[in-house]
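Why this split exists: single-chain examples teach little about how molecules sit against one another. For that reason, every record in the complexes split bundles all components of an assembly together and asks for one structure covering all of them. Below is a record exactly as it appears in the raw files.
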Amino acid sequence: MRIHHRLLIGALFLSLWLGGSWGYSQGTPIQLEVLSDPFIDFTSNRSSFTLNFSKFTRGVTTNTTDVTYTIKANNVVRTEGVVLAKLDDLFPNIALQAQLDSYTKNGGDAHLVATSNGFISVTTQEAGLANKVVDEGSGKILDGTFMIHYQAKALEDLAAGEHIRTLTVIFADT
Amino acid sequence: MMKGSGLFFLSFWILGTPTLWAQTVSKNISVSFEIEPVTVLKANSESGVSAVRLGPVSPGTQVPNQTLTVSIVTNTRQRYRVYHELRGEVTSSEGISFPQDQLLFMATAGTQGGASQVPSFIPVPQGEISLFTSKSEGGPDSFQILYSLENKKLFSAGLYYGNISLDLRTE
């Protein structure tokens, strides 16, 4: 009996205490959704360039020209051959060469590195110039700038003339 | 006179039945009504569902704010608060977390006198935050929660999900 009394008194105090605070509660669930679309913004600071041979003999190379590219992409799943280059047609006895250099990271969770230490020949087949390196997290976001050096090499003695080709640089995220 | 009355009474007793005569029977029944305290909180977006959908997000583009209209219907006279709780992280199916500082929210004042506790945009905190307080005598009210994206960062592509709970507590 005494225990019952104590329980009753305890319950009374508890109810009085609860009555003075934020008591009754009701919850409503809400679903939150955020859709982020796949996005690529790939630009360059130049739309054309000229390489000059100072000599015409086999093995000589032209001057080197640099083109700066800016990349913003948020769905870069691909890791190898993220930046590729190709020509619409080969130059006669001339090899166009390219090399990626100095990726500057402005944001994101990954960066780019060159696929090789030296120059890579650019032909009518896509040649990989850059691979992706994951820095943290998903590594799907690239936000930065990089430079590609271009030069040409004479494969044979060259006749005087002007040759124009279209160079396509591709950024591939998947 | 006494005999006559006695005969009449006798004939009534023999011929008559109680159902032939109109009767009125009254009984007093005690009636009481118990109206239970009811408080209902509803939250609907502009599309009429209990969901907040932001996007699609693209860098450099302004994503329209999403509005959630919160209605409180109550027959009590108790002061109450509405709490906002983001339960866990906002993540994609790949497990990528949405940058939390980029998701903002605020609450308007109530149409019936309630006060916003988050009157300007702030990042949505994880866990619970007091969002709205009714006037001292409580009562029905309605207010809006506005969700926005800072959109200054590049978000990894995907569909991100999060769970929010609006909790009403009376004083």
